[in-house]
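Q: Got a minute? One more chain.
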Amino acid sequence: MGGYFKLFISIFIIFLCMVFMSTSTYADLGDTVLKYNMTSPDVRELQEKLSKLGFFKENEFTNYFGEKTKQAVIDFQISVGIKADGIAGKETIKYINTKIQQLALLEKTDITLKLNDSGENVTDLQSKLKNLGYYEGEINGTFDEITEQSVKKFQSDLGLEATGIAEQQTLIKLYTAYNDMETARAAESRRTAGKQVVDFAKQYLGVKYAWAGNTPKGFDCSGFTQYIFKHFGVELEHSASSQYGGGEKISKENLEPGDLVFFTTYKSGPSHVGIYIGSGQFIHASTGDRKIIITSMNSSYYLKRYLGARRYKIIPK
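A: Always. Here it is, folded:
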């Protein structure tokens, strides 16, 4: 009888943990493999994206990965020519995100702009052409002859028929070229800023750990990241969970120096934070070592406790 009672208590405790566990305990979509019979907020996000792409047919989204979710994943995998196993791993999530981006671009470019048109779409066209070096006129929202010639030059350089009419194919090429340019600029700025963040943070190696500390006299983990980022004009709250709730979600394989990395340690959810410095390492205020140290993210302790990463926009000094 005693054995059955202990078993019942164990099962009941597990049930309570599942009920009251914070949703922030779960890693970001793509960092955890999602499959049949799992329950996670990431499943809801997966269902919502598959619904946008026309593969998940239900009207309501849940945290449960059931038969309908599995079939939707299989149907999507078949459509893009990857292994159709119904498991949403990194490759599947990457394809889903790419298709979502493509869908958004198609919706945004489902217009035709031509001579004598006017409005915000023309203003956007002129702005992008100017940034790419094709337009030298005034950005005035009027599709005039200068705009038409700029469109023709862009079309010719991209191997399109030089009609001077900005239809969907031209606009897709324009948005793609502009986004590629902006991505390259942002990446260079981010690399520069990231290096500056890491170099500044390393100055505090060896500073003692202090609970609730956020000055060089002593730091706790979120106080350290708050102090470092404040130096670069980014205001963070003194809380790992709050810092996890902001910024841009970044997958583990796309980590760059300066990104914040989060772990679940002494309690459920994001309870520890550090700054990624590259080569699989991060700098942080360690409770165990009682000071600021550099640690491998692949260490046995942190590898299994990793939750996700956030990228905050930092302007290089």
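A: Confidence is low (pLDDT under 50) at residues 1-26.
Q: Perfect, thanks.
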